[in-house]
Amino acid sequence: MTLTTAQRLNRTVLLACAPFLGAMIWVLVSNFSLSLSLGDSGAGASAPSAPLLSEIAAEADAGLGQAEAVAKEISVSIKKVSELYVKTNRNMSAIMTTAKAQANRPALIYDRRITRRLGAVKDSVQSGKLTAQLFSIRAQKFSGYALKVKLKSAGAMTMALGKDKLGGAETTLAAVKRTGAVAGVNAGGFADSRGKRYPLSTTVVDGKYVTGFEPSYNDLFFVGLSENMELIGGEFSSQAELDKKKPKFGASFVPVLRKNGVNLPIPVKWRTSPVRAPRTVIGNYKDDQLLLLVIDGRDENGSSGATLEEVQMLLTRFGVVDAYNLDGGGSSSLIFKGRIVNHPSDGQLRPLATNFLFFK
């Protein structure tokens, strides 16, 4: 059994006091176990004489005096040990506080470094569940926003179906207001059928497959959060392969942009159709913080927005480890603290099948 620092200190105090307590017990036993049987115990035994009683009383007085002296020494020693215990405990607490601060220092330095790459914080939210920081992005041919999120609890992020039902659709703003989220961004792709909007391919909500598992095809990937609050994603050929990642929620789209700090080749179709467009990307840092990029554009004809190669350049500059391209175009939407942050290319928010949501 592993002992805590406090338990080890308590045992040390007990061991320090043990000799003194043993001495007291020995004095009491040796000096006060007086024999009252001074003669034969049978009938006719004579009573002790006055001189003998006097000797017994004197011996008792001497024993009491010695016991009192020993007791005082023990009291002083226990007081010293107690003071030492309090002082040591206080010093240990200070040491633990310092050690904890030193242990967190590399993480703080890393966070400052990646934050500095993003620029000045435009707005932020901090709570027991998460820390979210909003940044503006300005490039030569496009502009947009970045949201860096540090998740602190399992309830800080989720993914919701449109109106919480299969086939439903709602804007990111509507989903944020309905759930009480502090922020939201569009998630996976979708397909329309018979007036309803269904999430594309493999979709997981609350740890359950919404329409079953579908093996990856045509560069489709799955991306979401695991039960351990880690971003998971990639192409999966079987449900068992994805189940090993313990997905809590996630959606599908195309293509994977970056993996293990390396930019991946962009599929030919996605280099030209369209060349430029509004984009939404989700990625992570090596400390598991999330980065969401939303790039603006004026229309769906490729006359504005960013190419996926340009997005990869941003991700490299920002130091992102893994990154996945989410549904873009008119679907790209970022909500923060109850307001629409970006400029949707449709001129208004598009109702979507899935949205990533964040809670404070």
From TrEMBL:
Keywords: Glycosidase, Hydrolase, Membrane, Transmembrane, Transmembrane helix. InterPro entries: NAGPA (IPR018711). It comes from the Bacteria. It holds the Pfam family NAGPA. GO terms for molecular function: hydrolase activity, acting on glycosyl bonds. Residues 180-359 form the Phosphodiester glycosidase domain. The chain crosses the membrane at residues 12-29. The keyword Transmembrane helix applies. The keyword Cell cycle does not apply. This is Phosphodiester glycosidase family protein. It comes from Cohnella xylanilytica.
